[in-house]
Amino acid sequence: MNNKPEFPICEECKKNISSIFKKLTIDQMSELSFEKGCSFYKRGDIIYHEGNRPSGSYCVSKGIVKLFKTGVEGKEQIIKFAKKGDVIGYRSVLSGELSCTTAKVIEDATLCFIPSTTLMGFIKTNSDFSLELMQIACNELGVANNFITGIAQKTVRERLAEILIYLKKEFGADENGVLQISLTREEYANIVGTATESVIRLLSEFKDDKYIEIEGRKIKILQEAKLKKLGNVFD
Fold it and tell me: Can you give the C-alpha Rg of the chain in angstroms?
């Protein structure tokens, strides 16, 4: 039996309606297939470090990667999660700056590395691709602005409720209603921007209030409407 994993095929990724690569021409897809390099990563592996100079960007073909900044005493502040179809590390390539985040795998992943020269070539010669990349960057900026506003204006309880709704929207839930992303209590704290002990206490309160069910790292949302109201989340 052959258990050797297969590398992703660019044409298959292009079929994904949310993929930025759907804007590439046939010749550019061939170039991408030739120039890319794909690797498999286990949970806990670091893709790139904050402060390093990037030589390219990455497309997530499988798994989940968290992007975070390191603060005082090494504490992480999670900025976002990247899933299948997302491109990470491209902003540092475009700006010519050092990587502003660290990328760490939290669910076994397959990522394709795209050299800077290849990405910049697509940007210079394909206006549709450039516009798509610009729209993604603007959307991420908007999310970052909302995050900063939330940190400044919402309580930790409101933020945690908002994060639970966000995770369900982004990653979905299984047939039993359990979130399809598994995070540690520390990771929840690093998203919300609080102490791990506070998150543990608040999750216990949410459970007592019948908003959620908890089994280890698995969280099932029982009363989504009430969590939205608590987190001031509007569709």
Answer: 19
Question: Which of 34, 8, 3, 183 is CA-nearest to residue 110?
Answer: 8
Q: For residue 164, what is the domain's CATH number? A: 1.10.10.10
SS (H, E, C) 8-36: CCHHHHHCCCCCHHHHCCHHHHHHHHHHC
Mean pLDDT of each 10-residue bin along the chain, 235 residues long? 56 62 90 93 96 94 94 86 93 92 96 96 95 90 79 88 94 92 95 94 97 95 94 82
Residue 172 domain boundaries: 154-230
59 in Cβ contact with 87 (< 8 Å): yes
DSSP H helical segments within 70-113, as ranges?
A: 90-95
Which stretch of DSSP H or E encloses residue 206? helix 196-208
Residues 6 or more apart whose CB falls under 8 angstroms from that of 66 comprise 78, 80, 81, 82, 103, 104, 106, 187
Q: List residues bridging with 215 in a β-sheet.
A: 218
Angstrom distance (rounded) from CA 7 to CA 36: 11
Q: Which of 186, 181, 194, 192 is nearest to 82 (CA)?
A: 181
In a domain, 166, yes or no: yes
Helical pair 127-153 and 116-125, crossing angle rounded to 10 deg: 110
Amino acid identity at 206: F
Task: State in Å, rounded, how far the first CA of the chain is from the last one.
Answer: 47
